[in-house]
Amino acid sequence: MKQALTLAWLAAAVAVAGCATVSSGRFSNPMTFSDTDPTVIEHVARRTLLELRFDTEYPEASKGRLATDSLTGASWFEFWRLDTVGAMQSLESSIHTIRRRATVNISPKDGGAQLSVKVVKERKSAPNTGPHTIAETYNLYSPEDTDLMRQNELAPTDYEWVGMGRDELLEQSILERILANLK
Q1: pLDDT in tens, 8-26
Q2: What is the pTM of this model?
Q3: What's the Cα-to-Cα distance from 33 to each of 23, 28, 166, rounded to whole Å?
Q4: Residue-range domain boundaries for the chain
Q5: Half-sphere exposure of 128 (CA within 13 A, CB side)
Q6: Comparing C-alpha atoms, which of 89, 85, 53 is closest to residue 171?
Q7: 89-95 contacts, C-beta under 8 A, 24 or more apart
Q8: Which of 4, 33, 145, 149 has the fewest C-beta atoms under 10 angstroms from its C-beta?
Q9: What's the pLDDT tens digit per position in 87-104?
C-alpha cells in the first residue's frame, strides 16, 4: 500500500511537471504587426500587464516603452494569479521569494508596429539568517528567551536579489494575451 501511494504521488508529480512547460518560441519575440497602429498595441499591452497585476513605472521613460515595477511571483496556493506560468514556476515561487519585472517595447515598423516583451526573474537571497547549529535552533524557540534578549536576532538583515535570467514562459503568455486582446 505504501509503495502504491508513493508511486501515485511520483506519477502525479511527473504529470504536472510535464504539463508545466510551453514550447519556447511559439510566438516570435519581437513580433511584427503589419497593419496595426503602435498606440493601439501600447494600450492593449498596458491593459494586459495590469490584468497580470503588474504596475507600470511612472513616469514612463519614453513613448512606446512600458516598464513595470517588480512583482513577487504567485505561489501554488494563489491559483487566481496569472503572473506565474506553469506548475514548476509556481512551486519555485512557493519555495523561494521570486520577483519578476517586465519591459514591453513598441516601435513603428514598415507602416505597422514591432512588439518585444522581456521578463527578468530574480530570487531573494538572505545569507546568514538562519541558525547555524542545533543549539541556536533550540535557543530560537526557547521559552526562557524574551524579546529583549533576542533583540539582535530581530535586527534587519542584508539581502540581495540574484538574477535568474529571462522568464520565457511568462513572455510567451504576455504575447499570447496581447494577441488575444487585439482581435
Answers
A1: 555 555 555 444 444 445 8
A2: 0.69
A3: 22, 11, 24
A4: 2-182
A5: 6
A6: 85
A7: 89/20, 89/167, 89/169, 89/170
A8: 4
A9: 888 888 888 888 899 999
